[in-house]
Design brief:
31% of the residues lie in helices and 29% in strands. The protein has 9 helices and 15 strands. The strands form 2 sheets. Strands 14-13-12-11-7-10-9-8-15 form a 9-stranded mixed beta sheet. A hairpin with a 7-residue loop joins strand 12 and strand 13. Helix 4 packs parallel to helix 5, helix 5 runs antiparallel to helix 9 and helix 7 crosses helix 9. It is globular, with a radius of gyration of 22 Å. The protein starts with a strand and ends in a 12-residue tail after the last strand.
Length: 354
């Protein structure tokens, strides 16, 4: 398949961004913008656009010129909209989360598997130059073995009417973790603590702790109530530590050759054994130069490449399913007073199109 005919479903907050990037991506041809409010869709496209407008999903899916759809509708609609597209033989890109529940997400993954179709998540942060560099560094052994991950995503944000702050903000951090972790390092269990100091009826401040295979631990702090905006992540390794500050365009990544080394007692002389077996390493800091590229353009390019190359995309359906599994375990932990809950689910090691 050379040029892929695409329909964007949803002309609300995120849909216009999908439209703009689809039109700028080689190999994609935007055929439709579909929204229940056709006038809103026309305003997004502008007066002189040749892209068709429809308020009927059935009409769009029946058109053979449409090979794929990009869905930007509320999470509760992801199952029926994405399932209808898959059943019509269309490849699907869907914004996070994959679905409203793990069970619904599993239905979509199974449907894509059964039909040999691409199911991809728009986990946009995973396609930023900073995360791409992090992934290469961590998975390539550049920081040694992973010891811990800490992420802070806080700001004075919009309190959502239907989900708590974990379901609203944590998918970004979880998708990044899953994208950069080395093979064999997986979430095992989750503990979550949250508070609702403004009486919103749902957690507005939350802390998430994730136990990983190999003894490493990941931590996420999300918050709708902070007057200051912070977007930072620290990935600690046995050899190096990386700090990502997404709000610092001049130095998003800082790589520190600093840390703690441990010497086994058996390797020390008798005169040293009485002293500490821990030593501190203080080395250089490197700030790699990173290109400034729009991540959503890379999302669209990956969607096209996954379809034409018949391979699983970087953020495939199973990665979205694993995010849902962690979130559901977090919700269960909140209801159990912060107890660790197991992360359950399918085998996430194989891609949707494997």
């Amino acid at each position: 398949m050379g040029t892929i005919g695409l329909a964007v479903i949803g002309a609300g907050y995120w849909g216009p961004n999908l439209v703009r990037n689809a039109q700028a991506t080689p190999g994609l041809r935007l055929e439709y913008l579909c929204d229940l409010d056709a006038d809103r869709a026309r305003r997004v496209l502008g007066e002189y656009s040749t892209v068709k407008v429809s308020d009927s999903l059935d009409e769009v899916l029946a058109d053979p010129a449409v090979h794929a759809v990009a869905i930007a509708t509320p999470a509760k609609t992801h199952l029926p909209v994405a399932m209808a597209a898959l059943e019509a033989g269309k490849h699907v890109l869907v914004e996070k989360p994959l679905a409203a529940t793990y069970a619904e997400g599993k239905q979509l993954v199974d449907a894509a598997d059964a039909r040999g179709l691409t199911l991809m998540l728009d986990h946009t942060y995973c396609y930023t130059p900073a995360v791409a560099h992090l992934r290469e560094l961590v998975q390539g052994g550049g920081i040694g073995s992973v010891q811990y991950l800490d992420s802070v995503r806080i700001n004075l944000g919009l309190v959502q009417p239907d989900v708590d702050v974990l379901w609203d903000l944590a998918p970004h951090d979880l998708s990044i973790f899953l994208s950069i972790l080395p093979d064999g390092v997986q979430p095992l269990s989750v503990a979550a603590h949250g508070s609702d100091p403004i009486g919103a009826g749902r957690a507005c401040v939350a802390h998430l702790t994730i136990e990983l295979t190999g003894g490493a631990m990941a931590h996420v702090h999300v918050n709708w109530l902070s007057p200051t905006k912070i977007r930072t992540m620290v990935i600690g390794g046995s050899a190096r530590t990386v700090v990502w500050d997404d709000l610092n365009p001049t130095q998003r990544l800082s790589i520190y050759d600093r840390g703690v080394d441990r010497t086994e007692a058996a390797d020390m002389g008798d005169d040293k054994r009485a002293q500490t077996i821990v030593s501190y390493r203080v080395g250089d800091m490197v700030a790699p130069a990173l290109p400034e590229k729009e991540a959503l353009r890379a999302v669209m390019a990956e969607f096209h490449a996954a379809i034409t190359e018949k391979r699983a995309p970087l953020t495939d359906g199973r990665s979205g399913l694993q995010v849902l599994s962690i979130l559901e375990a977090a919700s269960a932990s909140l209801s159990q007073g912060g107890a660790f809950m197991p992360v359950l689910g399918a085998d996430f090691t194989e891609g949707v199109n494997a």
